[in-house]
Design goal:
The complex is a heterodimer of chains A (116) and B (113).
Chain A lengths: L4 E3 L2 E4 L5 E6 L6 E8 L3 E9 L2 E5 L6 E5 L5 E5 L8 E8 L11 E2 L3 E5 L1
Parallel strand pairs in A: 2-11
Antiparallel strand pairs in A: 1-3, 3-8, 4-5, 4-9, 5-6, 7-8, 9-10, 9-11
Chain B lengths: L2 E4 L4 E4 L4 E3 L1 E4 L5 E7 L5 E7 L5 E4 L2 E4 L9 E3 L8 E8 L8 E2 L3 E6 L1
Parallel strand pairs in B: 2-12
Antiparallel strand pairs in B: 1-4, 3-9, 5-6, 5-10, 7-8, 8-9, 10-11, 10-12
Chain lengths: 116, 113
């Protein structure tokens, strides 16, 4: 079974630009979560999508948005980039059962975003 | 709310030394507990998990036991290798109706030959 894939792997942008990152989950997984990882803040939850609906949201400004398509692939968008947005963005997929106690997630390799 | 506390790193060991990385948690009910590992330049990989009290998760020589009475899930390995050098994350999910994992800050492990 293929793992979670993320594209692109590396990205360099300048302040004020916008960026779109893509994530393809494991086949059959309906939940896709996005995380931002930085040395200072660690792993921070951005949002989770399930069946094309945003089901959970972390504490990030509205510049961070996402969506999920009918095939469960997901994109996240960051508008008006700031220097502090430089980070590793990780996507994780899971079965996503609402009443499931087992929240095991499968992570992609991440997209390394550098904002200059 | 839920929280996970891990020991500060880096943890520096010589090859074949015994490893313990402490993890304690705060949560309601009976969450599932996980250890993830992140190798340089990669995403997180699930290392082991436990879904109920007194369960022991194990994989690749690593072990952790779900201790409800002490709200802990410490990671141990009897003999570390250089290839174990990575960042280790403790996490929980399934508490308070949320299945979104709560992660600790991560503990960096450096193993010298």
């Amino acid at each position: 079974k293929a793992g979670v894939t993320q594209t692109p792997r590396y990205l360099i942008k300048t302040r004020g630009q916008q960026v779109t990152l893509s994530c393809s989950p494991i086949s059959g997984h309906r939940s896709v979560s996005w995380y931002q990882q930085t040395p200072g803040q660690g792993l921070q939850f951005l949002f989770e999508y399930f069946s094309e609906t945003q089901r959970n949201k972390g504490n990030f400004p509205g510049r961070f948005s996402g969506r999920q398509f009918s095939n469960s692939r997901s994109e996240m968008n960051v508008s008006t980039l700031e220097l502090g947005d430089s980070a590793l963005y990780l996507c994780a997929s899971s079965v996503g059962l609402v009443d499931g106690r087992d929240g095991e997630q499968f992570f992609g390799p991440g997209t390394r975003l550098t904002v200059l | 709310g839920n929280s996970v506390t891990q020991m500060e790193g880096p943890v520096t060991l010589s090859e074949e030394a015994f490893l313990t990385i402490n993890c304690t948690y705060t949560a309601t009910g009976y969450p599932s507990l996980f250890w993830y590992v992140q190798y340089p330049g990669e995403g997180l990989q699930l290392l082991l998990k436990a879904t109920k009290a007194d369960d022991k998760g194990s994989n690749k020589g690593f072990e952790a036991t779900y201790r409800k009475e002490t709200t802990s899930f410490h990671l141990e390995k009897g003999s570390v290798q250089v290839s174990d050098s990575a960042v280790y994350f403790c996490a929980l999910s399934g508490s308070g109706g949320s299945y979104i994992p709560t992660f600790g800050r991560g503990t960096s492990l450096i193993v010298h030959p």
